[in-house]
């Protein structure tokens, strides 16, 4: 007994930081899901677009950021801070860094909640926040990394458990993704342009976008699965060897798969093919993780019948398996040709988000909160109710979206016996899908209701318990463990006890695919052939483009005509990579709620665009697009026009010194011409209104090359 007392060290786990992140997860989860229900409603009830700050285009990025970075992000940190301390038998390295991380992350979320509805956005999907917020994200992420590695270095447990491998890979990969994708040239505090353009910008964005799903929505949750599932089931992980294969194969293969978001685009064929090949390969490690999770419950399925938390875990892991089977399937070109730009992708994403991320988060919170508050759950019945409402909500969400996606994809491609498009008017498909969108909103409402029940249940649980802020623990110091430890006997044991080597190996794994795909696209000119007739945007068109970005039009409209007969018949000549060389950022989009706009220029008179923005249904009866009447009233801000052209010149856009100096003058000249066109059709509008700039941009789209 005396020997034990001399070899064991006493310390305290920090549960306060876990409590803080758990509460933030609950609150932001309800907020993010509520915004999701609102935008789902807007897609069949345009009247729900209240004010210019509450339109679908401005709220959609708010929803994605709130769910991904506020709800899921805080859940990750709650799970990591709880499990890391116990796996390493050490308190977090720095209470200050823990609190800096927590409050810094919440301030970033608040900044996003303010700036995105104001239209302050870069337009890059899942990376819409402007450059000052990106810098704040970097600082907070570095603080998280220092805190994590500081804890690892002072650990009392020699072996680094599999969950920690996933945490380390998450940290380094997200850092690389964020820094690379956030390369912007600031114009002002709230405006910047990406240094990349066109095809290269698209490749960087979807290298980031796909791997944000991989290394923010997947790898940390796999780490949490490997910790919390065995705890909940009181069973060891099914196969440690499988976890080794799962980890290394997943982080190596995942990073290559981003180009499958850009099939049939202007991206070079070799990059598209690489994306397809590695996407198909990705199913093996993904299902390795799913199988390892489900087989951990082998011999414990009787518990699943009674334990609702295990039900959440089983549905969550199964959803992960479904989503990671469907992802490779959607990367097959013949399937992608039908599915891309449709609601099929929306269904696919939400099976993963609602099932995998949502249900694992719910299970973790239900398991964790009572323990740190030293009490039982307030109501087991509410947990069961939440499970069934949430599961039904997922079904009501996903199934209608699958039907909607299949319907869209097939209607867009349908031809008559005479060889003409059967549904030539894009609105024909839009109106056909409205019942499915209503059901989707119902499913989202059910899922939100479950989250609200959870919030009530957990807050009542907290109220009836007492937070164990500093949880007492004891363990032998690492030096004694090292002395007593025998030879490892397996090559992987060498890296499992060396965090820096594990970090470096993870970095090498993710850099191989990244460099192979990105470097040739930037260094080999033939990958993005130029077109002599493609000229930079005029100063008025550039301002109009920025309004288009501000209003979130890219959320509903693509600017990429794919080389299909159905698309060239509907929109015009397919898009060429050389047409986008001056596009900072690219605006190809990922969803067609409305028609593609890349060949919009000259298709309609200026008056059509004026009336369409004022009242969409006046030009397109049955349209679900909100009106943008404020564009007719708001004065175009030209105070930064010269700075914008000067910034573009720094990025390689060939503006002359005179064009920059005369930017506002040239802008007014072009604006007067559009004003005159409108006046000829008895539309009175001042030349300095934002609608004029937007019309100029729309009329420019696709006019640099000859059309069929």
UniProtKB/TrEMBL annotation:
It comes from the Bacteria. It is found in: Cell membrane. It catalyses: 4 Fe(II)-[cytochrome c] + O2 + 8 H(+)(in) = 4 Fe(III)-[cytochrome c] + 2 H2O + 4 H(+)(out). It is a multi-pass membrane protein. The chain crosses the membrane at residues 21-45, 65-84, 96-119, 131-153, 160-180, 206-228, 240-257, 277-297, 309-325, 345-369, 381-403, 441-459, 502-523. Residues 539-702 form the Cytochrome c domain. Residues 21-467 form the Cytochrome oxidase subunit I profile domain. Keywords: Cell membrane, Copper, Electron transport, Heme, Iron, Membrane, Metal-binding, Respiratory chain, Translocase, Transmembrane, Transmembrane helix, Transport. PROSITE patterns: COX1 (PS50855), COX1_CUB (PS00077), CYTC (PS51007). It holds the Pfam family FixO. Its cofactor is heme b; Cu(2+). The keyword Transmembrane applies. Pathway: Energy metabolism; oxidative phosphorylation. Its main location: membrane. Its EC number is 7.1.1.9. Belongs to the heme-copper respiratory oxidase family. This is cytochrome-c oxidase. It comes from Aquirufa originis.
């Amino acid at each position: 007994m005396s020997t034990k007392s001399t070899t064991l060290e006493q310390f305290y786990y920090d549960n306060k930081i876990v409590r803080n992140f758990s509460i933030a997860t609950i609150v932001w989860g309800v907020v993010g899901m509520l915004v999701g229900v609102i935008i789902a409603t807007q897609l069949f009830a345009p009247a729900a677009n209240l004010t210019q700050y509450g339109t679908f285009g401005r709220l959609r990025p708010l929803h994605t950021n709130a769910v991904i970075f506020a709800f899921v992000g805080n859940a990750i940190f709650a799970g990591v801070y709880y499990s890391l301390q116990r796996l390493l038998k050490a308190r977090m390295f720095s209470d200050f860094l823990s609190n800096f991380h927590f409050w810094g992350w919440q301030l970033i979320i608040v900044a996003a909640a303010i700036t995105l509805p104001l239209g302050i956005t870069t337009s890059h999907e899942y990376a819409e926040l402007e450059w000052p917020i990106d810098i704040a994200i970097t600082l907070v992420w570095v603080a998280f990394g220092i805190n994590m590695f500081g804890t690892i270095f002072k650990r009392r447990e020699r072996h680094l458990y599999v969950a920690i491998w996933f945490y380390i890979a998450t940290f380094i990969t997200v850092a690389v993704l964020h820094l690379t994708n956030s390369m912007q040239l600031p114009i002002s505090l709230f405006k910047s342009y990406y240094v990349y353009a066109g095809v290269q910008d698209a490749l960087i964005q979807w290298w980031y976008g796909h791997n944000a799903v991989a290394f923010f929505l997947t790898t940390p949750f796999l780490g949490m699965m490997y910790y919390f599932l065995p705890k909940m089931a009181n069973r060891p992980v099914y196969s440690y060897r499988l976890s080794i294969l799962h980890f290394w194969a997943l982080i190596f293969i995942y990073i290559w798969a981003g180009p499958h978001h850009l099939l049939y685009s202007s991206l070079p064929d070799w990059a598209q093919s690489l994306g397809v090949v590695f996407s198909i390969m990705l199913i093996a490690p993904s299902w390795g993780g799913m199988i390892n999770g489900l087989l951990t419950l082998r011999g414990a399925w009787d518990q699943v019948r009674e334990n609702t938390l295990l039900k959440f875990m089983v549905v969550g892991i199964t959803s992960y398996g479904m989503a990671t089977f469907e992802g490779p399937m959607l990367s097959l070109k013949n399937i992608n040709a039908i599915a891309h730009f449709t609601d099929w992708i929306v269904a696919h994403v939400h099976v993963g988000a609602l099932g995998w991320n949502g249900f694992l988060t719910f299970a973790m919170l239900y398991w964790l909160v009572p323990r740190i508050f030293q009490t039982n759950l307030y109501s087991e019945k509410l947990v069961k109710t939440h499970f069934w409402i949430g599961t039904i909500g997922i079904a009501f969400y996903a199934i209608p979206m699958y039907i909607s996606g299949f319907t869209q994809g097939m209607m867009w491609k349908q031809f008559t016996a005479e060889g003409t498009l059967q549904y030539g008017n894009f609105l024909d498909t839009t109106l056909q899908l409205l019942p499915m969108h209503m059901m989707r909103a119902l499913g989202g409402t059910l899922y939100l209701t479950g989250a609200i029940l959870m919030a009530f249940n957990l807050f009542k649980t907290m109220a009836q318990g007492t937070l164990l802020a500093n949880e007492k623990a004891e363990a032998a110091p690492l030096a004694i463990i090292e002395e007593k430890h025998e030879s490892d006997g397996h090559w992987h044991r060498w890296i499992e006890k060396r965090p820096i080597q594990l970090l470096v190996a993870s970095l090498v794994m993710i850099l191989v695919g990244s460099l192979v795909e990105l470097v040739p696209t930037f260094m080999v000119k033939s990958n993005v052939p130029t077109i002599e007739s493609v000229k930079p945007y005029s100063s008025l068109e550039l301002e109009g483009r920025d309004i288009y970005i501000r209003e979130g039009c890219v959320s509903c409209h693509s600017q990429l005509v794919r080389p299909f007969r159905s698309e060239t018949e509907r929109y015009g000549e397919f898009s060429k990579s050389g047409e986008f060389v001056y596009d900072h950022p690219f605006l190809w989009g990922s969803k067609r709620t409305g028609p593609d706009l890349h060949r919009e220029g000259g298709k309609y008179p200026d008056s059509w665009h004026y009336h369409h923005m004022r009242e969409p249904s006046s030009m397109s009866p049955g349209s679900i697009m909100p009106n943008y009447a404020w564009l007719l009233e708001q004065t175009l801000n030209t105070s930064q026009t010269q700075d914008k052209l000067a910034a573009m010149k720094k990025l390689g856009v060939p503006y002359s010194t005179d064009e920059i100096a005369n930017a506002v003058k040239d802008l007014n000249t072009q604006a007067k011409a559009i004003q005159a066109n409108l006046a000829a059709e008895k539309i009175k509008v001042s030349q300095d209104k934002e609608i004029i700039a937007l019309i100029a941009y729309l009329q420019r789209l696709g006019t640099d090359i000859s059309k069929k």
